[in-house]
Amino acid sequence: xxxxxxxEKLKTLGFREYDAKVxxxxxxxxxxxxxxxxxxxxxxxxxxxxxxxxxxxKGYCNEIETNRFLSYQIINPQIILDKIIxxxxxxxxxxTAIIQDAFGDVLQLYKERSSNISKSENEIELIRGFNKHRxxxxxxxxxxxxxxxxxxxxLKGVVSDELDKHAEKLIKQGGVIKSIYQISLNFxxxxxxxxxxxxxxxxxxxxxxxxxxxxxxxxxxxxIPNISIFDQEKIFINISEKTVPxxxxxxxxxxxxxxxxxxxxxxxxxxEKAITIEEYxxxxxxxxx
Length: 289
Hints:
Layout (H helix, E strand, L loop, with lengths): L1 H11 L4 H10 L7 H8 L3 H14 L2 E5 L4 E5 L2 H38 L9 E5 L2 H13 L4 E6 L7 H12 L3 E7 L5 E4 L2 E4 L2 H13 L3 E5 L6 E4 L3 E6 L10 E6 L1 H17 L3 H12 L1
């Protein structure tokens, strides 16, 4: 019963039926003649001879020659395991290299062809899928911004070291970043090595860290939309709906300077009604006193 189980597992590794039976017979660990292996494995002698010769070539067993006959002895199975893993990894690496090479050409062709599409044909882009893919697209837009980024955010999911790095770089190059953050504690922070609910002081601390590298920040009690405008031309709209599964959520990118003007007006409306961090601090202290 145990031999049958081993044979089935070896077949999942690519061993043929007879190969697996001969390999299992050799697990006795002692030198065996072809006749002995054939009897133990219940495989015809001619097939056993071909199989053990292939095992010798692969380094699975040793061929021992004496004055009377040839015998075969399996080497340490751990060595065989390491060899199979190395071969598998080599094949995987080769397959990956082929895929990367093929898609290198695919991506280049896509880049060349998509660059020829007129703006009117490519005004609206819908991005569906897991959060990390949509964040990558947002970061790509941010990295390509040259002059200005305006944003309205709910703080949850905003904090990103990579985003901070690109924001600081844009400001150093003379760009402008203006952000409105909704006053909400619907995010978690790490405090003393443990994840916990955010407090007003945490919201203040995070927003002040944004101000430290030159971002202009205001806070809003209104439930604001999650929208960013890049260089007054491209708009990124995050559509967040709790009832929709995370892998089904979507974002919209609109490349239209005329439409961007309307969204900038909306941003300006919320900006004028929003308060500074200092004003938020003052309101907190008044409530405490």
